[in-house]
Write a structure and sequence with these properties.
Number of strands: 10
Number of helices: 11
CATH class of the largest domain: Alpha Beta
CATH superfamily of the largest domain: Glycosidases
Strand content: 5-15%
Number of domains: 2
Distance between the termini: 43 Å
Largest sheet: 8 strands, parallel, barrel
Helix content: 40-55%
Length: 387
Amino acid sequence: MLIFLFAEKRPCVGMRKHAKLLAVFATLLSISGLLYALERVTSDMDAIRIMVKHGSNCFRLRLFVNPPHTDVVVNDLSYTIALAKRIKAAGARLLLDLHYSDTWADPAHQLKPEAWSDLDFDALVERVYEYTRMCIATMKQEGVLPDMVQPGNEITWGMLWPDGKLYGVGEPEEQWWKFARLLKAAIRGIKDAAGDAVQIVLHVHCGGDWRQTQWFFENVEKLGVQYDIIGLSYYPWWHGTVDDLRDNLRRTAERFSKDIFVVETAYPYRHLDVREMEGANQANMRWPMTPEGQRSFLVELIHVVQETPGGHGLGVLWWYPEAIPVEGLVVWNDGATALFDRDGKALPAMDAFLEVAGAKKFLVGGDVSALAKIEAMGGVFRDDGDP
């Protein structure tokens, strides 16, 4: 084209045409460059894709029934589906964590959704089934069927209290029977919506406690609850030493012959006074509270899980890796246990996932349930250079 323009016999007209074409060409280059830059910025700012770049292949999302949309308690079905689409687009696997509450469910809190509070027990069981089936069916229709589902979060002491509570109310045998009915209803809802395409994870909090793990899963087994994977939480300040975890993994694998997934863990990259946390033991914090100390913790933890007998160590997920401080939002531990620093930059610990990226079936990543909320409040994530 340029040769043709320079050969134009009428220089004035040719130069005008040349100038116009060059202007168009420059505009196209500018747009192309802008789009390229935007694409790179978008990629660099997407915490999910940054984590995938650093070896993550699995993410967990929580789901509340009717959350109040305060702070990061925003995880209704539409919010969760939107994040799930980003996870699936990144080529990662998805673990869905059903809380069966309007807010946080954990060993100390398992409140029924307010809309379910007046239901009698039989009606509650039916509601659990219908709600679960609806959620999974909707996600399937939206193209984001989870690979795994947790019916309940840290359900060591039951769920949907007081009906499914396993201590302090009623006769123990009756409470276990009620809890099992609720759990079976949830699992039936998952299976009726997705068939065998989805694996069931039963999640307890006692990563370093074999006796408590044994107590829970032997009762579940006795009551005929069908599941695929044992999920554990392991925070060293709450759940014991790495040796305690190793012992529990070994005993649990040998006793139940199930894959075991550490679905929650974390460690600080900067100072965190865990003495202010109820039940915490500072003595278990033997790694430095530095970026390299955090990385050393995660490397060691991954190796311990990989060593589980029978190849039953399934993986490790980091809790709240996206918890960077943003104005107007309270994040867990003020972000000290995130995998991004205060400025949103990926920390060295994330590279621990790369060391197992090629390991057969081993899952690594994190629970990024607050990501969209943090982004909406101005949180920005970045990754300087290649891992």
